[in-house]
Design a protein that fits this description.
The complex is a heterodimer. By secondary structure, chain A is α/β, with parallel strands linked by helices. Chain A is 20% helix and 27% strand. Chain B is an alpha/beta fold. Chain B contains 4 helices and 13 strands. In chain B, the strands form 2 sheets. Chain B has a 10-stranded mixed beta sheet with strand order 4-3-2-1-5-8-10-11-12-13. A 3-stranded mixed beta sheet of chain B has the order 7-6-9, with no helix packed on it. Classes of the chains: A alpha/beta, B alpha/beta. At the A-B interface, α5 and α6 of A face α2 and α3 of B.
Chain lengths: 230, 217
């Protein structure tokens, strides 16, 4: 038996994204952000997107290209403070922003990936983040119903991959990639190194390839992947 | 950093006990590590997926994949671990954090904390602050005693949207160390050159002042 080859070109992988799609994007700051997939999405120009991501990167980087290009209708995020463009667009009502507590965003995505409909949590029950959410009482406590998140597409950045889509990550680049890689109808992973089957030992695989639909090998990394000099 | 601020940071560093798992909020709280001995036994946690935070590195030797939650290029130490965001917040919500040191816009005498949103002015999202404030076993605030306009930040009730209710147990400021008790604010220590009357005047709620000599820091 042999595992199938899901490697493809970045153009073909991104061409499967439709206008109006909900797209999960991995990353926390620079580490784990799939900058090349985002750039291709910018080039192809799909519109009316809902992006689910921890943050909005920084001005002129990552998903800021999509926001600046008018491709984004809504963000579901935890914190956008490092991107003044995104904050300004939110304040001008040019994009809708739904904020989520960071670990609850991760858990809503995990629930989506795990085939659950929602989670119950006391996180944020006394805050503005509870507005509009269903409250249930259990064991004498008020809990929020936090609905599971699934997406049409997830854009994932891996350090290493094989053609079946088995993935391994570097350092703090795991972040939201691990959960998002389980929570979308179509999962597209870019990899800094794409080796033949067997290059990733079974023990080294962090995301099993059975979750992944397309693998794209990155060539030389663009500047966006590098150290941010402040 | 002003002298009063660096004394506050040095004093707050003594909050960290050997063997603790600790999350330091972005900004001033991060600076307390500079006051810990290099071999001090503590496990620092970063929300983006790291326990065992090592020293900050200059750009030349930084690893592009290794940052803390504030975006600083940090390093590992022997025994460090990487994990994803689901695991990172499982650690927070299950009560594995012994201590978090957080910044604040306002703290109320009942322990309510507001540190993430100023409606109409500042609303970038809470990040991980709500879970840290709600679930760390000990939540301690570091802040200037008054804001830039001189208004008190220690209040009878928070006017800004809350991060979490009743979570704060102690506050380190540039003027004092203040505990939160059943009865509200209680002065514990004074910064050098600051009097109890100064603290009372700069605090926007009743504050209990001990009859005995008050230690200074």
């Amino acid at each position: 038996m042999r595992l199938s080859d899901k490697s493809t070109t970045i153009e073909a992988a991104i061409a499967g994204i439709a206008d109006g799609a909900t797209v999960m994007v991995g990353g926390f700051g620079v580490p784990g952000t799939p900058f090349a997939l985002i750039q291709e999405l910018r080039r192809q120009g799909q519109k009316d997107l809902t992006l689910i991501k921890n943050d909005a990167n920084e001005a002129g980087m990552g998903i800021d290209h999509l926001i600046a290009g008018g491709q984004v209708r809504k963000l579901i995020v935890t914190h956008i403070g490092l991107n003044p463009h995104a904050v300004a667009r939110m304040n001008n009502a040019e994009i809708e922003v739904e904020f989520c507590a960071q670990g609850i965003l991760a858990e809503r995505i995990r629930a989506g990936g795990a085939g659950l409909q929602a989670i119950l949590t006391d996180i944020g029950v006394d805050t503005d983040l509870a507005q509009g959410k269903q409250v249930v009482e259990m064991n004498g406590r008020r809990l929020l119903v936090e609905t599971a998140l699934r997406a049409d597409v997830a854009l994932i950045h891996a350090a290493r991959a094989d053609p079946f889509g088995n993935l391994a990550y570097a350092a703090t680049a795991r972040n939201f990639n691990v959960a998002m890689a389980m929570a979308a109808a179509r999962v597209i992973a870019e990899a800094e190194t794409l080796g033949p089957l067997g290059t990733l030992s079974a023990e080294a695989v962090e995301t099993p390839g059975a979750f992944v639909d397309h693998v794209v090998a990155l060539g030389a990394l663009s500047e966006e992947y590098g150290i941010v000099r402040r | 950093m002003s002298d009063a601020r660096s004394r506050m940071v040095a004093r707050a560093a003594r909050e960290i006990r050997p063997g603790m798992v600790v999350n330091l909020g972005i900004g001033l709280p991060t600076k307390v590590v500079n006051h810990l001995p290099a071999d001090f036994p503590v496990c620092l946690h970063s929300e983006n997926g790291l326990t065992g935070i090592g020293p900050t590195l200059p750009d030349e030797t930084a690893d592009r994949n290794l940052i803390d939650a504030g975006g600083a290029y940090v390093s590992t130490i022997p025994g460090s671990a990487f994990f994803d965001s689901v695991v990172s917040f499982s650690l927070v919500r299950s009560g594995r954090l012994d201590l978090t040191l957080l910044g604040a816009f306002e703290v109320a005498g009942n322990g309510d904390l507001a540190n993430w949103k100023i409606p109409g002015k500042f609303s970038p999202g809470a990040g991980g602050a709500i879970e840290l404030a709600q679930k760390a076993r000990r939540v301690v605030v570091m802040t200037t005693h008054v804001d830039r306009k001189g208004n008190p930040k220690l209040l009878a009730a928070c006017s800004l949207p809350l991060t979490a209710r009743g979570c704060v147990v102690r506050i380190y400021t540039d003027m004092a160390v203040v505990d939160i008790t059943e009865a509200g604010f209680a002065l514990c220590e004074l910064a050098e050159g600051v009097s109890a009357a100064d603290v009372r005047a700069a605090t926007g709620a009743p504050i209990a002042i001990p009859d005995t000599a008050i230690p200074t820091f």
